Amino acid sequence: MLNCKDTTRLLSQQQDQSLSLRRRMALRFHLMMCSGCRNYNKQIDFIHKACRRFSGKE
Ligand SMILES: [Zn+2]
């Protein structure tokens, strides 16, 4: 079972590289139960997309 620290670390890792299925499942499970990490996920997702748009890769 992941704690919040592991979850936030994996979430930012996930932006650069794909995770194993097992890790993705663990992440999803934690996000289902933890609103703090859900918010964090939304934030980095938004930032990441904005960055990509700025660099013109998409
Ligand atoms: Zn959490």
Automatic annotation (TrEMBL):
<dbReference type="Pfam" id="PF13490">
    <property type="entry name" value="zf-HC2"/>
</dbReference>
<dbReference type="InterPro" id="IPR027383">
    <property type="entry name" value="Znf_put"/>
</dbReference>
<feature type="domain" description="Putative zinc-finger">
    <location>
        <begin position="4"/>
        <end position="38"/>
    </location>
</feature>
<protein>
    <submittedName>
        <fullName>Putative zinc finger protein</fullName>
    </submittedName>
</protein>
